[in-house]
């Protein structure tokens, strides 16, 4: 697809969403009076007719058509709510067939409206995604012009998207962003969507540029073997598998490091002060710290006046354009916290272990000089940890233009019963297919990085973080046959609290930011295009195996003694 076509697609999709919304508003005439009891039959009839219309138009139209289906039925939302209220106030005799039929019709209409609201949210998300990719591509082009690096330019947006989502599998050692390298850093620097930042004397210079490539160990002649399916003579075969370890190689030296540290820990505080000074004095590195840490360091010693920080959320949005590396000092929670600061691209993370478990924190803090030397010089292995992008869709806001901001999680999103003592009742869909109803304490939708966290405690498999997948793990399901699932990374999951749920559900994101989900609300999750690159001590697999063995004591058992019965 050319850039122009992309621009057209991006803008036309936005226009489509906007148009459908304006239709939404213009067709929503406001509340419809609650029908008096004698006229309820006529209301049932009219709703039943609308139900038929909805079904007919669903059959005859494609996906985008479903938005206009919503428009034609939106006027019944208010009447539906009014009718529910009316029904709640009026005792229903089980023998009253009319009221039962009416209530059924209302449910059908409500379901159709839900589908439309969700379709709209998905379309908005998709349009935003295309727009962002388009902006990235433009930035990439501009950057390449400045650098005179013609080979960096790719006119194919799909290629860029697949590079960002790791669908490309190749290694290339051919210089600047050769055919198979990932030049994401160049794409991401300098141009930032959003408001123009106010001039800041603390701003640092350009970011260091780097290249990601897939390693090809054991490949003697340097020829990389790709993972692809070939169809020679009608036979389907996969080529020999390559080593997919991802290497980060700096193309210019990194200049700026951001520290994210666990609060209320004296050890962390002392080490942070020492590392900051060492980086400045021995490596001439610019250092950013959190506002809390900046205050602490400056109160102690004014000679830390070289450190930089931020004042507000707008400045946090720009951090990824200034920072070459993130250093975390703490446990896994600190890595999650660091990732949560970045709603878009995330610079590589070097996680030093100062927590209790430290599954994602492989670097020993006692050897920080050696570790940082290795990382600053490069090349080093990284694990690209996928994140999930979660949208909460409110039933009450289905005819509003703006939905809640997406939330990115590195571990998982959990939907549970919170303080409710009732069973959680959740309807789950994968793309357009119904998956199941969860009846139990809740559901965990996890990344593969999160597979060793809450999902593991709920009986999910441990999955290597580079495996492209989404884990679907129930929490205490009240069923004998509910096994956890692992779904492919490209699907979109939708979990909704049905109208007839007895209680609310609660969503939490990496264990934080709890949000109530009322009957009618839904959560939509898919893999985000912005992974978290974490530096490895050895390589992705060695580090993972070490973590499950040393951190979780996986399959620890006393060895069987030599003496005893034999074959
Ligand atoms: N029953 C459970 O196991 C349970 C319950 C609630 C939350 N959690 C996890 O805690 C996470 C939040 O972590 P926190 O440190 O802010 O909270 P926290 O301080 O409560 O620590 C939770 C524990 O989970 C470990 N952990 C976190 N991410 C991990 C990962 N990817 N692999 C292996 N272990 C991991 C941490 O090291 C820590 O020991 C949530 O994302 C969730 O996965 C687990
Ligand atoms: N920079 C930060 N600002 C605010 N809160 C933070 C920050 N870093 C970590 N936290 C929070 O502090 C809590 C504890 O942090 P962390 O998990 O890193 O330490 P730990 O519990 O000692 O280690 P582990 O997770 O390995 O057991 C987490 O809930 C995390 O969200």
TrEMBL record:
Q: Does the keyword Nucleotide-binding apply?
A: yes
In Swiss-Prot or TrEMBL terms, this protein is called NAD(+) kinase
Composition-biased stretches, type Basic and acidic residues, lie in 1-12
One GO MF annotation is:
NAD+ kinase activity
Catalysis performed (reactions): NAD(+) + ATP = ADP + NADP(+) + H(+)
- Stretches for region Disordered: 1-40
Q: Which domain of life is it from?
A: Eukaryota
Cite the InterPro entries for this sequence. Answer: ATP-NAD_kinase_N, ATP-NAD_kinase_PpnK-typ_C, NAD/diacylglycerol_kinase_sf, NADK
Keywords associated with the record: ATP-binding, Kinase, NAD, NADP, Nucleotide-binding, Transferase
Report the EC number(s), separated by commas if there are several.
2.7.1.23
What the record says about family reads: Belongs to the NAD kinase family.
């Amino acid at each position: 697809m050319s850039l122009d076509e992309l621009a057209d697609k991006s803008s036309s999709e936005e226009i489509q969403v906007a148009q459908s919304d304006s239709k939404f508003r213009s067709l929503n005439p406001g509340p419809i009076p609650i029908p008096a009891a004698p006229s309820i039959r006529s209301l049932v009839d009219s709703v039943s007719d609308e139900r038929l219309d909805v079904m007919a138009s669903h059959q005859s139209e494609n996906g985008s058509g479903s938005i206009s289906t919503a428009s034609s039925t939106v006027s019944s939302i208010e009447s539906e709510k009014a009718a529910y209220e009316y029904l709640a106030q009026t005792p229903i005799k089980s023998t009253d067939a009319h009221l039962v039929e009416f209530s059924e019709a209302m449910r059908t209409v409500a379901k159709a409206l839900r589908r439309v609201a969700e379709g709209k949210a998905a379309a908005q998300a998709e349009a935003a995604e295309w727009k962002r990719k388009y902006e990235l591509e433009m930035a990439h082009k501009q950057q390449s012009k400045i650098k005179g690096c013609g080979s960096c330019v790719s006119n194919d947006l799909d290629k860029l998207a697949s590079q960002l989502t790791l669908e490309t599998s190749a290694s290339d050692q051919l210089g600047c962003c050769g055919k198979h390298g990932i030049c994401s850093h160049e794409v991401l620097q300098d141009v930032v969507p959003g408001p123009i930042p106010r001039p800041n004397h603390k701003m640092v210079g350009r970011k260091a540029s780097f290249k990601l490539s897939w390693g090809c160990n054991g490949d003697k002649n340097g020829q990389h073997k790709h993972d692809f399916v070939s169809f020679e003579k009608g036979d389907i075969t996969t080529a020999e598998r390559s080593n997919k370890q991802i290497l980060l190689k700096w193309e210019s030296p990194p200049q700026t490091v951001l520290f994210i540290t666990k609060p209320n820990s004296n050890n962390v505080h002392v080490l942070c002060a020492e590392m900051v000074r060492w980086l400045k004095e021995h490596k001439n590195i610019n250092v950013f710290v959190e506002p809390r840490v900046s205050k602490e360091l400056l109160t102690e010693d004014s000679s830390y006046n070289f450190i930089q920080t931020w004042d507000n959320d707008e400045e946090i949005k720009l951090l990824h354009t200034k920072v070459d590396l993130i250093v975390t000092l703490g446990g896994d929670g600190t890595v999650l916290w660091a990732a949560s600061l970045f709603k878009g691209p995330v610079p590589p993370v070097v996680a030093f272990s100062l927590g209790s478990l430290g599954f994602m924190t492989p670097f020993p803090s006692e050897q920080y000089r050696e570790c940082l030397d290795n990382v600053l010089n490069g090349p080093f292995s990284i694990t690209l940890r996928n994140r999930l992008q979660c949208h909460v869709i409110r039933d009450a806001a289905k005819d509003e233009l703006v939905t809640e901001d997406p939330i990115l999680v590195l571990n998982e999103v959990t939907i549970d019963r919170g303080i409710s003592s009732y069973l959680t009742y959740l309807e789950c869909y994968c793309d357009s297919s119904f998956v199941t109803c969860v009846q139990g304490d809740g559901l965990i939708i996890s990344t593969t990085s999160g597979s060793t966290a809450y999902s593991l405690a709920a009986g999910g498999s441990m999955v290597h973080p580079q495996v492209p997948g989404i884990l679907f793990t129930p929490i205490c399901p009240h069923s004998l046959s509910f096994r956890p699932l692992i779904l492919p990374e490209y699907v979109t999951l939708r979990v909704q609290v049905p109208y007839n749920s007895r209680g609310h559900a609660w969503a939490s994101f990496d264990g934080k930011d709890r949000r109530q989900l009322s009957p009618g609300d839904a959560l939509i999750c898919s893999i985000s295009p912005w992974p978290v690159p974490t530096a490895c001590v050895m390589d992705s697999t060695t580090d993972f195996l070490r973590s499950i063995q040393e951190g979780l004591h996986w399959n620890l058992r006393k060895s069987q003694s030599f003496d005893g019965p034999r074959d």
